[in-house]
């Protein structure tokens, strides 16, 4: 009887029944998911009803409004029509509220809302959960522990290290400009800032600017920024499984591998150096430790050190943030000075007066450059290295004008739009360093190149020092001129970049 029950004549019927049940369950699941998305969209519509925005497609959101690489320009247009903030629909039930008013910024940055997981999770396979992505008590513990790496006792000797890295870059430029053709500067500046951060924060001995592995790392970072940004904006690349099977997913995986190999080499090299008793003695004599040494010697509340995963996350985070944002800042500053020769010359004369016959720049010189500092800040206003940051509201918020948002809404702080707002900065597209004169008055949250609040950039003083050194030494060696055939086009990415590169003509000064 048992053999008869499993006979071939009845087996296909059993398979057919199973397929029907599976199809029915799949349909029910699909309908349930559709209902879930519909209800969530209705909740979002109600949540942002106080904030008008342009009409959006029920599935593709505002995709048509945002032509390729025109995001910065489109948000500026929206800001003219919709004061303070405006919802942006990324897809059917994916939304963020763009904020570009200083009073709104002050409210959000004064809170302790976490980073928006739905956005930043896409970069976590690359940089891990270090200081940039962590939230809550773990973030606070890491931040407190690493703050000492940016004490002025630590930063002071870095000036000479940075100056040496800048000179290597300028020597290279002197060789390249003999052809009298414009030079695309961003990759050169990126290699220089990577060289500086590796020597300063990671005790790296060799010159990264002359290392092929460093060039591979820089390219991997460029690929990761583009791929991450593209994925955040695409409704079809949200699923991890689907993305991993796509060509972009494969490229992302390969770029992550290259980036991780670079940071793993740095960590391994430093651990090896610390096996040397002389090196350990040098560490013990230091009043304060460098960034990587803090991580390697740190003890958590439970008495254990950083896990390998946490260690690499912090190194990956700072290796990227410590060189790439500064490289963006320096490149745009040099372009702004090239485009405004009268301000360039005033900066040059100021540096020449300060340095006189001295061989190079020192820590004491950094506070003696008021006009150049004003120009740097004005360039950072026009070209903020990080165009936006995002938060997910952990509790409801009410803004000064009475409008409110509930818990769970993602808020994107558009720093670029804030810096270009005519309501905040009169004639915002004009390069005017006097905005940052000592006697000028500004809203406390009108200028945020390093974000603000408790989660502001931990390395902002290091970055400002590096910018001053790089700009000062460059102006002493070269006259900078823009390439009129290739005016840089700012483009939104994780870090601000130019769609067509940043090309300058460099003329060697006598």
UniProtKB/TrEMBL annotation:
Q: What would be an example GO MF term here?
A: arachidonate monooxygenase activity
Cofactor dependence? heme
Q: Name one GO cellular component term.
A: endoplasmic reticulum membrane
Residues crossing the lipid bilayer are 12-32
Residues the entry annotates as binding heme: 457
Compartments annotated for it: namely: Endoplasmic reticulum membrane; Microsome membrane
Q: Which GO terms describe its biological process?
A: arachidonate metabolic process; icosanoid biosynthetic process; kidney development; lauric acid metabolic process; linoleic acid metabolic process
Q: Which residues form the signal peptide?
A: none
Main subcellular localisation: endoplasmic reticulum
Which keywords label this protein?
A: Endoplasmic reticulum, Heme, Iron, Membrane, Metal-binding, Microsome, Monooxygenase, Oxidoreductase, Transmembrane, Transmembrane helix
Q: Which family does it belong to?
A: Belongs to the cytochrome P450 family.
Q: What is this protein's name? A: Cytochrome P450 4A4-like isoform X1
Species of provenance: Heterocephalus glaber
């Amino acid at each position: 009887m048992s053999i008869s029950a499993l006979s071939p004549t009845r087996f296909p019927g059993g398979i057919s029944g199973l397929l029907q049940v599976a199809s029915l369950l799949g349909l029910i699941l699909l309908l349930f998911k559709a209902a879930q998305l519909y209800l969530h969209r209705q909740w979002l519509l109600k949540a942002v009803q106080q904030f008008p925005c342009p009409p959006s497609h029920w599935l593709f959101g505002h995709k048509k409004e945002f032509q390729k690489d025109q995001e910065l320009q489109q948000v500026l247009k929206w800001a003219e029509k919709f004061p303070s903030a405006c919802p942006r629909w990324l897809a059917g039930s994916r939304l963020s509220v763009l904020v570009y008013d200083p009073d709104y910024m002050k409210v959000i940055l004064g809170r302790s809302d976490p980073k928006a997981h739905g956005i930043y999770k896409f970069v976590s396979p690359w940089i891990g959960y270090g200081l940039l992505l962590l939230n809550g008590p773990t973030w606070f513990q890491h931040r407190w522990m690493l703050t000492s790496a940016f004490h002025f006792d630590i930063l002071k000797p870095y000036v000479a290290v940075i100056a040496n890295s800048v000179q290597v870059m300028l020597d290279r430029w002197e060789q390249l400009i003999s052809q009298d053709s414009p030079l695309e500067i961003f990759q050169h500046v990126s290699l220089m800032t990577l060289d500086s951060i590796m020597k300063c924060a990671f005790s790296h001995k060799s010159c990264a600017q002359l290392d092929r592995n460093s060039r591979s790392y820089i390219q991997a970072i460029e690929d990761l920024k583009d791929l991450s940004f593209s994925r955040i904006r695409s409704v079809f690349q949200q699923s991890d499984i689907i993305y991993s099977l796509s060509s972009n997913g494969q490229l992302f995986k390969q770029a992550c591998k290259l980036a991780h190999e670079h940071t793993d080499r740095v960590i391994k090299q430093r651990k090896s150096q610390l096996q040397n008793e002389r090196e350990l003695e040098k560490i013990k004599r230091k009043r304060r430790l460098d960034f990587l040494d803090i991580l390697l010697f740190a003890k958590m509340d439970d008495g254990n050190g950083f896990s390998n995963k946490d260690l690499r996350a912090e190194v990956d985070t700072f290796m990227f943030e410590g060189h790439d944002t500064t490289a963006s800042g320096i490149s745009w500053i040099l372009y702004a000075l090239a485009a405004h020769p009268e301000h360039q010359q005033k900066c040059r004369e100021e540096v020449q007066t300060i340095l006189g016959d001295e061989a190079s720049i020192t820590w004491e010189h950094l506070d003696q450059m008021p006009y150049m500092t004003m120009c740097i800040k004005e360039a950072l206003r026009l070209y903020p290295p990080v165009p936006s940051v995002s938060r997910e509201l952990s509790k409801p918020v009410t803004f000064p004008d009475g409008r409110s948002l509930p818990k769970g809404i993602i808020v994107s702080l558009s720093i670029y739009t804030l810096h270009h707002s005519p309501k905040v900065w009169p004639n915002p597209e004009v390069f005017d360093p006097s905005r940052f004169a000592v006697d000028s008055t500004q809203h406390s949250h009108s200028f945020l190149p390093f974000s603000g609040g408790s989660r502001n950039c931990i390395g902002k003083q290091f970055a400002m020092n590096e910018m001053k050194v790089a700009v000062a030494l460059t102006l002493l060696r070269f006259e900078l001129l823009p390439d009129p055939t290739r005016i840089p086009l700012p483009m939104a990415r994780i870090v601000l970049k130019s769609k067509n590169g940043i090309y300058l003509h460099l003329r060697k000064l006598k």
